[in-house]
Amino acid sequence: SYVLTQAPSVSVAPGETARINCGGNNIGSKSVHWYQQKAGQAPVLVMYYDNDRPPGIPDRFSGFNSRNTATLTIIRVEAGDEADYYCQMWDSGSDHVVFGGGTKLTVL
Amino acid sequence: EVQLVGSGGTLVHPGGSLRISCEASEFNVSVNYMNWVRQAPGRGLQWVSVIYPGGATFYADSVQGRFSISRDTSKNTIFLQMDSLRPEDTAVYYCARGIWIDLWTGYYNDFWGQGTLVTVSS
Question: Tens digits of per-residue pLDDT, B47-101?
């Protein structure tokens, strides 16, 4: 089955840029979606179809997907961005959804 | 306002059964890709199951043969019947609405319920 790999944690200072990576074999040929989960809350979609933002998600969030890595980038990071971030794709061979292990973003 | 309200989570003994529910508001579950996703304590998200608008169902390998997803269109509700429960099934179970893109991309989950806690322990 397909595997998505994420670093366990990323730390950035307020105002800096956070880059959260999601690795997978030829993931650039798939579409990747991203979810933000704050402590004690349900996940929220923040990026879909690699680089489309749902309504209400600030344009500080952007996405890119190429070759073996998809990246969620957050510029001008704020304290309120502190959360776990999960990448996700759909495996067309099995009709299964695959999540990455999640990356905890800490705002210093 | 779109809402997904999960319910039915409780403490169950190993080997037991439980059915959890997720009632939708402001959209029709029968025309959407409805998912269950779970999260064990302190762990990441794990996809569990999906029911397609046409009725096809799919399951993660870890629950195949033990769990069954269904829907009741009259109640606009989806269900997850869980049998032969194991301690490792302990998790918050979220229902989520899937939005289909295409045959290559599949779908993404644009809206999630608040989750219901299932604890499997003796």
Answer: 999 999 999 999 999 999 999 999 999 999 999 999 999 999 999 999 999 999 9
3-state secondary structure labels for all residues of chain A: CCCCECCCEEEECCCCCEEEEEECCCHHHCCCEEEEECCCCCCEEEEECCCECCCCCCCCEEEEEECCEEEEEECCCCHHHCEEEEEEEEECCCCEEEECCCEEEEEC
CA distance A9 to chain B (A): 13
Enumerate the β-bridge partners of residue B75: none
Question: Alpha-carbon Rg of chain B, whole angstroms?
Answer: 14
- The residues near B31 (Cβ < 8 Å, ≥ 6 apart) are B53
In this complex, which of B46, B99, B103 lies closest to A92 when CB atoms are compared? B103
- Best of B38, B45, B101 to disrupt the A interface (most A CBs within 10 Å) is B45
Q: How many CB atoms lie within 10 A of CB B8?
A: 15
* Band (A1; pLDDT cuts 50, 70, 90): confident
Distance of alpha carbon B74 from alpha carbon A19, whole angstroms: 45
Nearest residue on chain B to A84, alpha-carbon basis: B44
pLDDT in tens, A47-98: 999 999 999 999 999 999 999 999 999 999 999 999 999 999 999 889 999 9
Indicate the SS3 state at residue B116.
strand
